[in-house]
Design goal:
single chain, alpha+beta
């Protein structure tokens, strides 16, 4: 049996003690906790570098390279992105790249083979993409990307 004078209202309000002290402390604790969590969360204050859309043209002996992939690779950060060549020899990396110096490789298109499917036809040759351009470790092509320089022309040559 409850003590005489016991009611929920009697517990919530006692003379000399504000009625909202328990809920007030709870709200204050939540607000302070959220503020500390926002300030102390690692990485949340870091801004991603601005990305610059990249585009350009690849040619071989003054003719457009109409099939292939153009890879931009930053040796400083390890960041890489790929653009696909179209029938005019042009590519675009619309999601953009951070300003940096990039090694650029031009490679034949990646083969589209279903998993487990036999390859019935021999691999297509791409004589318009000389071997030295096909890897970021051997390609002599470079691009210094910034706000003013974001369109590039890469004329490939035979050795």
């Amino acid at each position: 049996m409850p003590a005489p004078g016991y009611t929920p209202a009697a517990i919530a309000y006692r003379p000399g003690r504000p009625a909202s002290s328990v809920p007030g402390r709870l709200v204050l604790g939540l607000v302070v906790g959220l503020m500390l969590g926002t300030v102390a969360t690692p990485g949340c204050g870091k801004r991603r570098p601005r990305r610059i859309p990249v585009s350009g043209t690849v040619t071989f002996q003054d003719l457009p390279v109409t099939e292939g992939e153009v890879t931009f690779f930053s040796q400083a950060t390890g960041f890489a992105s790929v653009g696909v060549l179209d029938e005019t020899g042009q590519f675009a990396i619309r999601e953009g790249l951070p300003a940096d110096r990039y090694v650029v490789a031009v490679a034949p298109p990646s083969p589209q083979v279903a998993a487990g499917a036999p390859t019935a036809t021999p691999a297509k040759e791409y004589p318009n993409i000389p071997p030295q351009y096909r890897s970021v470790t051997t390609s002599p092509l470079q691009a210094d990307l910034d706000e003013r320089n974001h369109e590039f022309t890469f004329p490939l040559t035979a050795r």
